[in-house]
Amino acid sequence: MFRLAAFDMDGTLLMPDHRLGEKTLSTLRQLANKPMTLTFATGRHYLEMKDILANLNLEGYLITGNGTRIHDLAGHRLHASDLSSDCAEELLNTRWNTPASLHVFRDEGWFTDLDDPQLLVPHEFSGFGYQLCELSTLPVTGNSKVCFTAPHEVLLELVPSIEAHFGSRVDLCFSAADCLDIMPAGSNKGSALALLTGKLGIEMSECMAFGDAMNDREMLENVGMGLVMGNALPVLKQHSPHLQVIGHCQNQAVSHFLQHWLHSPHLTYSPEY
């Protein structure tokens, strides 16, 4: 018996154009009427996600910033974790030997010193955008995560430097091939979902979850049913080979799977690719 469904957004619920398909939206509403507790677990900012749900007329718990923030249905904050002030200061003021751009997430929004309209493409449907500033002027407290964006090969070259500098003081994860997130140690979607389910009186074994990237791994591994997207990062499939793979986000595979689960659970599921 599943009581909660947790969904990543980009590469999972959202299609490659970063929009939610009509079939997916319809299925989410059916699921909510089952009733099933909906939870949206994403690297995106809370301010963006609350507007997205409001515009779609959907209700759901929000795990944002890859697990650094949890909000309930009424928008009350249930949990927050931030980078320590020393880690934030070092991230913002160290001259990293990389062409990757640096982005900072705080409760007030998304901050960067790079004015690049291409960064806004994934956010066109929500209208959410960055605020330009000199990053060294930001407070060293209240920073939920920092991310570097660049082609994957560039970010792979940066990882050893970050690991050598910070050790276990921070956690690293790829939320997308071109996005390397630096998180407070112990903060991830899985730990956040465990906190949320504990407050709701739901066991993790009573949850299903869908994801496509390494920032979803802890969540997928620790629920009763973890589903990996067909378009998932290869490294996620390699690290979690025991998890079921469904179809591609282009084909609204989450909806496809859930329609099967809702109406034909006695039949073997065959993913669409």
UniProtKB/TrEMBL annotation:
PROSITE patterns, per the entry: COF_1, COF_2
Any Pfam family matching the protein: Hydrolase_3
Cofactor: Mg(2+)
Active-site residues, as the UniProt record annotates them: 8 (nucleophile)
MF terms in GO: 4-amino-5-hydroxymethyl-2-methylpyrimidine diphosphatase activity; magnesium ion binding; phosphatase activity
CDD domains for this protein: HAD_Pase
Swiss-Prot/TrEMBL catalytic activity: 4-amino-2-methyl-5-(diphosphooxymethyl)pyrimidine + H2O = 4-amino-2-methyl-5-(phosphooxymethyl)pyrimidine + phosphate + H(+)
UniProt similarity note: Belongs to the HAD-like hydrolase superfamily. Cof family.
PANTHER family for this protein: HMP-PP PHOSPHATASE, PTHR47267
Protein name as it appears in the record: HMP-PP phosphatase
Species of origin: Ewingella americana
Gene: cof
